Amino acid sequence: MREIKAEQITQTVRALCIEANCHLPEDIKGAIAGCKACEPFAIAKNILDKIEENYQIADMDNVPICQDTGLACVFLEIGQDVHI
Fold first, then answer.
1. Cβ distance 49 to 36 under 8 Å?
2. Do 51 and 32 contact (CB within 8 A), yes or no?
3. Residue 47 has what pLDDT?
């Protein structure tokens, strides 16, 4: 039987949540930049500028990109031979 400490699961989920909420993947950043480059309307371009500024601040300060980060619900498949 394998034993896993609950704290280890908590720390792993915590780290994954921080990563998901604070750091956009490079492909998403590129998509935002691409949209901004093609955007003909100044107001929309300004909004995309604010989005870029927001994710840059989030990256630097390790804070959520959006304050409405929701609630995490985690499902684990651990099998029968694992004890937490």
1. yes
2. yes
3. 95
4-23: average pLDDT: 92
Owner of token pair 């998509």:
31
Cβ neighbours for 29, distance < 8 A, ≥ 6 positions apart: 52, 55
List the structure tokens of 42.
């100044």
Q: Which two tokens stand for residue 1?
A: 């039987």
* Residues in Cβ contact with 69 at an 8 Å cutoff, skipping those fewer than 6 apart: 21
Specify the DSSP element, H or E, that contains 82: strand 82-83
> pLDDT of 24-40, one tens digit each?
999 999 999 999 999 99
pTM: 0.70
- Two tokens, residue 28: 């998403």
Contact, 32 vs 48, CB < 8 A?
yes
